[in-house]
Amino acid sequence: MGSAITAIGTSFGENTLSDSDLRARFGNPAMERVAAVSGILERRIADPGTCSSDLAYRAASLLFEKGLDRNYDALIFATQTPDYLMPSNACLLQERLALPRSCAAFDINLGCSQFVYALATARAWIDSKLARRILVLCADTPSKLIHPLDRSAVSLFGDAAAACSIEACDENFLTDFTFGTDGRGFEDLICPASGMRRHPLKEEDFAEYTDESGNIRSAANLFMDGVKIFAFAHRAIPQSMREILKRNSLNTDSIDLFVFHQAGEKIISSCAQKLGISMNKVWFKMHDVGNCGGASVPIALADAAEAGRLKAGMTVAACAFGVGLSWGCALLKWRDGFLSACDADFTKSPRKPPSQSAADKFSL
Asked: Are 354 and 266 in contact (CB under 8 A)?
């Protein structure tokens, strides 16, 4: 028995935070440097009352509106911005999406690497005959954790969700996976005053401070050390990609399309350059939606399929990395009959990454 991605639905925050909005907030010189590194020109931001489960509900509903059967054996919800600490978002969505009561439902608490881990978990359930059809939901609303004057974060992240249907089939289209974790860097991307470690929150947890780069935040906001995250990705991702290719007797020429976590142009270009990958084999989907966290890889896959760049029979290497620090790579074969649905038309021609000299002028 094998398994495959048969459908992806995508949903985005209701509002657009544009480059001009942030230029008015932070000034032209600062945003020019950010744009040169990230390539992100617009971010999709959820309404205050919209949570991760709402975005995931929309993404899945779009697939059901196209005739996808709701008869799933399991629902896996991956997020780090759940509606509640308890119960799990998966239980909320089982009822809201009218999935069978026989459907297993559980969350995976993981950040930007969540899609690869959830995809591997779905394949394992299918391989072990625990399920034949699994709905994987990836959704995050990082904007709710970001201080509006923290340029290092507010300029990057967008709110979004992806709903992926994983189904049993005769051939295995989810070929292989590699994973890694380096908990030594857990403080490099963190919301310090969150969870039980700082419960109950104290007044000082909301006290704002300004860092050496002029970013303003409190301990209750998301913190990211962009330089350390870049160094981590530049080190770990090419190594993990080489490992999965070698294990499957492949090289970069054997791959039709590379889809990296859409953290920004410079970090993706750097990993591709280290692997010797031609940039015409790398798909970008962050310019008009932002870094959508764990949903960024399935959003990019769906976008590439809708644009006609990803076709049946192609071999895809996907890689996601982030909070933890954690990472994962997946080798996929794209199956025919793929169904996609998006709540808005965000398919655009990928913009050429900035030159290396331009990108080197600035570090987040």
From this structure: yes
How high does pLDDT run on average in the chain?
90
Per-residue pLDDT tens digits for 40-91:
999 999 999 999 999 999 999 999 999 999 999 999 999 999 999 999 999 9
Average pLDDT over residues 193-197: 88
- Pick left, alpha or beta for residue 265 (phi over 0 → left; psi -120 to 50 → alpha; otherwise beta): alpha
The HSE-up count of residue 322 (CA atoms within 13 Å, CB side) is 31
- Active-site hit among 291, 292, 319, 342: 291
Please give the Cα distance from 340 to 295 (Å, whole number): 14
pTM of the entire predicted model: 0.91
Q: Taking each helix axis as running N to C, give the angle between helix 265-275 and helix 226-247, from 0 to 180 degrees, rounded to the nearest 10.
A: 40
Give, to the nearest 10 degrees, the angle between helix 265-275 and helix 28-38.
30
Q: Which residue in the list 51, 89, 103, 112 is annotated as catalytic?
A: 112
pLDDT tens by residue, 297-324:
999 999 999 999 999 999 999 999 999 9
At 76, the amino acid letter reads I
Among 153-162, 205-214, 348-357, the least confident range? 348-357
112 a catalytic residue: yes
- Ramachandran bin of 290, using left for φ above 0, alpha for ψ from -120 to 50, beta for the remaining angles: left
Beta carbons of 247 and 176 less than 8 angstroms apart: yes
Of 103, 164, 261, 342, catalytic: 261
* Three-state DSSP class for residue 272: helix
Alpha-helical (H) ranges within 77-184 are 89-96, 114-127, 151-154
